[in-house]
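Hello Y.,

Per our agreement to keep a running log of every chain we model this quarter, I'm adding this entry. I've kept the format consistent with earlier entries: sequence first, then predicted structure.
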Amino acid sequence: MIRRLSAAAAAGLLPPLLLALPALAHGAPTSPISRTAACAAGGGTATGTAACKAARAANGGPFGTFDNLRVPNVNGDDRKFVPDGKLCSGGLADFKGLDLARDDFPSTTVSAGKTLPITYRATLPHEGSFRIYLTKQGFDPKQKLTWDDLASKPLAEIKDPPLSDGSYQMSVKLPSDRTGRHILYVVWQTSSTADTYYSCSDLVFASAATKAPAAPVATRKATPSKKPSATAAPTSEAPDEATPTSPEQTQQAITPVGDQSKVTLGHGIVAGALVVGAGFLAYALIGGFLRRRRQNR
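Predicted structure for the entry above:
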């Protein structure tokens, strides 16, 4: 249809009023939500947020419709037609409020290293390619977006993705090193019209602090244990109730193995007594022998 209209226009067969009508290829990302879909007419339901209100005030008037942020005849030379600081508006005055440097535009929470599904609403589908960029690590959302903020190569370039329920369905793998707030920048260069569409989707990469905490684990309150006595032998089972011991038993129990001091002392006393006794016996025997010898003389 569009090609036939273009051919008719080239041949001068269309009236001037019809030639003045805008091209009918429209679209914008609705997931992750883009600034134009969130804040412009006909898009999402976030038009009342503080960021969208500020964007409309900066715009000096209402935005164009959410699916109409497009620049003609770019032919892939994006940097030439869309200047730094105006990437989110595509350099169009009707959307300049979207270029505000704010960190509270409606956003989508994502996870680094995961696959991000993208739903790109197409109010009138057309053939073309999508180039999907992401801001570099360290991007400051309180500064206006520039081309140098984007990685030099797109995360993906997808040609003619499938259309389902009026939206293009595609996905990209997110880098594993991103943290904090970033912008997913989508360029849709149609091949069946002269238009190229631009959009900014604000992403917030989830961190450990933003993830839901793990469910608490119930723990049993520890009961203070009694200090084990020196007589207790290590065991893997619960000990029986201890039987009270006397101080003498306790002293005997803690005598180191191999300490023979007490045994040696007792043996010495006995040996001494035996020596003394043997001395007296020898003395008596000698005395008796001498007496008998004197009597025989």
